Amino acid sequence: MNVPRAGDNNGVRTLQSETAHARGGARMPDSEHGNLANWDGTERGRYEVWFLKLNHRASGTALWLRYTFLSPLPGKGDPIGEVWGIFFDARDPKRNLAIKQTLPAAAATIGRGPFAIRIGESELTNASARGVLRRNADEIRWDLAWDPSPETFEPFPFEGMYRAPIPKTKWNSPHLDIRMRGAFGVRGDTYPCDGEPGQQSHLWGTKSADQWAWAHCNAFEEGGGVFEGLSARIRLGPVKSPSLTVLHLRSEGETYLFNSLLQLLTNKSIAGLERWTFSAENERYRLHGAITSNLADFVGVKYTDPDGEPLYCHNTKVASCELALEEPTGGAWYPIQKFNSRGTTAFEWVSRTPDPRVEMLI
Predict the structure, then answer these.
(1) Which of 147, 248, 286, 344 could cysteine-pair with 55, CB 3.0–4.6 Å?
(2) pTM above the 0.85 mark?
(3) What is the CA radius of gyration of the chain?
């Protein structure tokens, strides 16, 4: 395979990038197309993130992995590649651990045929994740695999939103609902995975939203079901938008979407650090629910936009969730399905200022 090296950009060495053709001409699955990098390895003022999370139900723990490239605007720093590992223990939050490795982007690679991200000792493909992070005596190690999803979930209502200047951050989920095999280790303890519920998503853009609440769960107490929701406020010049909310539920082979342009504005959302409540209606159904979390379960991390402006992410992967899907009967709404998660919901609350009750670990 040809691996041409990208040239310098304003004197900054950027990452290597592999050819964009599938090996041997084989057709890529849709999920792999959803993971392909949008950053060309040279352009400034961009960021791109691939994240992976899983819940280890037997131990009450969870793992969040984040592979990211940041190419700041000129004068705001050099392009970098980073790997983040965050471990959560719902039974003993004092064991929570966060480690980050930062390298020059020139030391990393992006493969486009097939898709692969390599940063230091860590790698992400469309069907696996391997790596290790160390800090003094602490270590997070992972070797995970899954069956690729047949399609990429795109939460925006129109494909044009993925090409337009606004929103400035694009988002999809190549693997909205997967089952993990392999193992991960933290501080010498090993957590074997044989069908643990997980997710892998992809973000890219030029500027993050000003504030958002996000949640995902595919580990409900009874039955299947996959939920993902986002409520964000974006900056339109000097003005912040109202909350723009998209909700999505899959259950028993059915998909329930609440993401039209009108629903972006009319879906209801009240978000805070310890509780997020929301509701939405479409032409046939109503979905409402609440995400709740304990302060001790949060890990604080700092994001940085390409223009150097910081954001503060208050993140937990062991929150709880209650959902009700309803349909109208006789002029009133009646529940047809209910969903409950105890300590297996991913939730993050991100803002431009940190909450002093949550320690920023990285």
Answers:
(1) 344
(2) yes
(3) 20
